[in-house]
Amino acid sequence: MLALILLSLTLWIWAVLDISRRQFKSRLTKAISLICVFMFPIIVPLLYFQLKEKLIIQKKRIFNKELKHC
Predict the structure, then answer these.
(1) Bridge partners, residue 24, by sequence
(2) Strand partners, 56
(3) Cα–Cα nearest to 11, from 40, 54, 53
(4) CA distance 42 to 56
(5) Residue 53 clears pLDDT 80, i.e. is over it
(6) Which residues contact 6 (CB under 8 A, 6 or more apart)?
(7) CA–CA separation, 58 vs 42, rounded Å?
(8) Beta partners for residue 40, in sequence order
(9) How many whole angstroms separate alpha carbon 6 and alpha carbon 41?
């Protein structure tokens, strides 16, 4: 039982930190995500990590073609 509580607490903290660091498509989406995580701390972090790709702004990776090896 203690392990389940620690796991859900860790997931909750991770979700709150991730939401606060990411850039969302709108401020309203970010605010709603934070409110929902605080109101439903067990279920919503799981849903957030499943739907995160659709909620945040994806930055395209830029690869340097002129990478020089040592």
Answers:
(1) 56
(2) 24
(3) 40
(4) 21
(5) yes
(6) none
(7) 26
(8) none
(9) 12
